[in-house]
Structure formats: structure tokens, C-alpha cells
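Pipeline run #58 for the internal structure catalog. This entry was flagged by the ingest filter as a single-chain record with no existing model, so it goes straight to prediction. Upstream metadata was stripped on purpose; only the residue string is passed forward. Reviewer on rotation: M.T. Logging verbosity set to normal.
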Amino acid sequence: MSGSANLLRLMSWLSPVFPTGAYAYSAALEQAVAAGSVTDTQTLETWLRALLEAGPQWNDAVFFAAAWRAAADAASLAEIAELAVAMTGSAERHRETVDQGTGFLDAAANWFDDGALPPRGAPLCVAVGAACGLQQIALADGLAAFLHAFVANQLQVAIRLSVTGQRGAAGLLAGLEPAIAETAARAASSSLDDLGSNTVLADIAAMQHETLKSRLFLS
């Protein structure tokens, strides 16, 4: 496909119109706000940078790249998806990535022949990575768009939780572009040996959110 066609496809797949349920999940940001770990634009930026560079989103980017490379190999994709699910650190994180992956696959089927995509139940990072690989969308472009969509959704969550307003969110999005691009570039040359994270507080927040009494989000 042409560059413009690839761009349009990525915009479609990662847009709010796609039924991935992204509006319903905060990836533990709601718990971080409730606990006082994220209180303003500065702490929000620190939180998001950590997730991108050394947290679950880094691992998702590595799995995305692996799925992109194995897009036409059903057996390898199944193994990658199994490992990605196994590395979800909490019940809500598991539900988040599997439900979003299933929503993506159901909608993305409009662009593919029957049976081309991974089966329902694949985590979101594997589902989108495989779809990009099958459509021959450049790995670096797909990764950048995937990570950008995550950050944009997190900023929408922050607006709903009154951590920042739209102007503050726009400023953060501009400031985080280099981190998104750098993480995408690292992940594009990664292998499954590069998996690993050190955002322990984010993992704990994801577990604690399961018992948060008053909440807006499912994770």
C-alpha cells in the first residue's frame, strides 16, 4: 500500500471509533491518582514516561514487534500471545489487554480474509502487531502509532480524573512525542529477550485498583 493508505489504516485501527473499549480502561492510572502518586501534569508525565520506557507498555511494544515479524506464522503467534498474556501482572491488566485485543480483532476483520488474523483472545499488542505485519505496514510506524494511542488514551483518562485539562494534556502529548518515538525505535530492533519492566509501583497500583471502592474505570 502507499504511505498515505498505511497512515489512514493506522488511524482507523487506533481511532476512538474502533471498539477496543479504551475509554473504559485506565491501566491503573485511576489508582495512581487515588493514591496520590499522580496529582498534576508533572507527576503524570513522569508516570507515563516510566510506563513507556520500562513498564508494561515497553513489554507490549516488544510483543508487538514479535507479532509483526510472525504475522503469517499461526503457531509462533499463538506462542507469543500466550507469553504476553502470562506476563500480565494483575487480573485487571489481563482483562484489559485480552478484551481490547478481542475488540480490535472483531473490528479489524473487515480488512482481512477469514482466518488471517490471530484468534479472539489474543492480547491487544499481539493483535495490532500481527495486523500491521499482515498489511505490510512498517514496523516502526505501527509501533509509534500504537504507543501514541496508549498515551493519548491515558491523557483522556487524566482529563476525566481532573488531573489536567485539555490544554495541559495537549502540552504533555507534545512533550512525550520524543519518548514515544524512542521507545518505538528501540522496540523495532528488539527480541523477546528484551522483555522486562521495573515499574513496580504501577504493577502494585494495577492490583490495588481491583478493590478501589469508587471508580470510573475497569482497570
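catalog note: Residues 62 and 187 are 5 Å apart (CA to CA).
catalog note: The chain has one domain: 41-211.
status: ready for reviewer M.T.
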